Structure formats: structure tokens, C-alpha cells
Amino acid sequence: MRGMVIVAVVVFALFILFSGAAFVVDETEQVVITQFGRSVGEPIKDAGLRFKIPFIQEANFFPKNLLEWDGDPGQMPTLDKTYIWVDTFSRWRIDDPLAFFETVNNEMAALAKLDNIIESATRNLITSHHLIEAVRNSDRKMDIREVGIDETIKEIIVKPIEVGREKIAKGIMEQAQPKMLQFGIELVDVRIKRINYVEEVQQAVYNRMIAERKQIAEKFRSEGRGESSKIAGEKEKELKKITSEAYRKAQEIKGKADAEATRIYADAYSKDPEFYSFINTLEIYKDSLDKETWLMLSTKSDFFKYLKKYYTE
User: Fold this and answer.
1) What are the residues whose beta carbons fall under 8 Å from the beta carbon of 288, sequence distance 6 or more?
2) CA dihedral 177, 180, 184, 185 (to 10 degrees)
3) Measured CA distances, 21 to 12, 36, 290, 301 (Å)
4) Is the Cα dihedral 94, 98, 104, 106 positive or negative?
């Protein structure tokens, strides 16, 4: 019985020793073996079952695949003194796990180093170029044509692109990459994710855009008013032309009618002039004499010719 217990203890001890000595390296991992906090031997980069001295040595695992760095937006001026927010991101990996362990030791510290180095390189490149260089990649004509934009902005838009955004991002990586090698880090790529104006410049840009749109709207309104006045003038001119033509035709017709009526009257009255004179005088009596009218005339007046004749008879 005692022998079985000893065997069991030995087996258990061997198991503990084996489990403490053996470890598995995954395809996405690399390992640095340390002994009392110091690295021992070469880093392990190949996947498989590995061994170390139990209790004395420790396996430090580091990722072998691509890692992400996404920096905070930084405020910086361009060469033309325009303050902007620049937001960058990059992809990196641990190329030398031993140097990585001995310098930064962990991913959090590595990200802090990336913050400092990439932000510094970004500031150097952005401050060395005009805003348009950081925004555009080439002199390709834009699909959208701006209307009513002032001459200064026109010059900025048509300014030849000598470097461009893509080359600026490449320059950031070229400046930052050598500085990261001492930490066992390889920068794979650096890109500019977003560029935006700072709040004060944004407000100035918005105000300028609003003023431009108001100017364009006022121009359209002015053209509309001018077109409206032109249409109204044409209408008035046409109306007067139609009215004048209609009045002329009406006067012609009226003149012809008056001439015809005069001719008819003349033909009728020429047959008996005395009767015409009598009828005409009666009409005058009717229009000029009433109950409230007083008329003092000589009895010898021709106006009473027919009345005198009537009373005489």
C-alpha cells in the first residue's frame, strides 16, 4: 500500500513538473523565455510543443499577427496656417519579440510609444504642406463644380498637387518606422482617417458658405426680379398694342357708322328741311325747359319761332 502511495506521489510530481515545463505555442503567437525576469535564449516564433525549466523559467506570449493602433485626433496647423484636426490609424506587428519584451514589455506601453512617435511624424508632415495637399491626392478635376465661390478659394482648389494625401501618409510611416524598430515593432501601414477644421475655423467656413449661398440666392432673386419686370414690361407693351389696335379699329368703325348715320340723316332731312328744323327745336325744348328752369328771351328770338307760330294760329 505504501508503495502505491509513493508511486502516486511520484506520478503526480512528474505531472506537475511536466505541466510546468511544457507549453504550446500557437500559430499566431511567439514566446520569450525569461528566468528570474531576464530573457533566456532566442525567441520562439514557430508553433508547436515547447519546454522550459519549471518554476524557474516563465513563457511570455506575444501576438504575431497584425495589431491595430487608432490614435486620438490631434490639432495642428498646415503650411498655410490653417488649423485642422488630423485623425490617423496604423497597423503594426511585433517583429522582434525579444527587443519588444526588453523595451516596452506589453501592448499598452507599445501603443503609448506609437502615440508619441506617429503623432510627432504626422505633425511634421502636416505642418510642412498646404491644406489641399493633405486633402487631395491629385489634380483630378472634381465631379462637383462650386458656384459663387470667391477668388481666394478658387486659387486653393486649382493649386497644383505636388505631394498629395497618400504620399503624406507614406512620409509619416517612413519617419515613424525607423524609430519603432528599437522597440521590436514593425510599422506595416499608416493612414490618415479623417481631416477636419478646428471649431473656430469651422464656424468661419460655415459663415463664409452661408454668405456665399445668400449671395447666390440674392443673385438668383435679382435675376428673377429682372426677368419678372421684363415679362411685365412685355405684357404691358403687348397690352397697350392690343388696346391701341382695338381703339383704332373701334374709332374706324365708329367713324364709318357716324358717317353713315350722318348720310342717312342728311338724306332724310333734305327731303323736308322745315320738318327737320321743327323736330330739332322740339328736342331742344325738351332738354332745356322743365318746371324749375327760368329762361328770359326776347319774343323776337328764333328760339320761340314755333311757339309764337302756335299761339298766333
Assistant:
1) 295
2) -60
3) 14, 15, 147, 159
4) positive
Q: What's the rounded Cα separation, in Å, for the pair 295 and 266?
A: 31
The angle subtended at Cα 281 by Cα 279 and Cα 286, nearest 5°, is 95
> pLDDT digit string (tens) for 164-203?
888 899 999 999 999 999 999 999 999 998 888 777 766 7
The two beta strands, 38-39 and 74-77, are unpaired
Write out the three cell numbers for 96: 522582434
Cα(179)–Cα(175) distance, integer angstroms: 8
Q: How confident is the model at residue 305 (pLDDT cuts 50, 70, 90)?
A: low
| Neighbouring-strand partners of residue 197 | 84
pLDDT tens digits along 268-291: 777 767 677 777 777 776 666 667
Q: Are 30 and 45 in contact (CB under 8 A)?
A: yes
Q: Which residues pair with 61 in a beta bridge?
A: 31
Are 114 and 91 spatial neighbours (Cβ–Cβ below 8 Å)? no
Yes or no: say if 123 and 171 are a contact pair by the CB < 8 Å rule: no
Exposed, middle or buried, 73 (CB in 10 Å: 0-12/13-18/19+)? middle
* Burial class of 276 by CB neighbour count within 10 A (0 to 12, 13 to 18, 19+): middle
The letter for the amino acid at 197 is Y
The model's pTM: 0.56
> Residue 66, SS3?
coil
- CA distances to 146, 199, 289 from 151, rounded to whole Å, are 12, 24, 87
Query: Domains (ranges, CATH) in the chain?
Result: 2-63 (no CATH), 67-197 (3.30.479.30), 272-312 (no CATH)
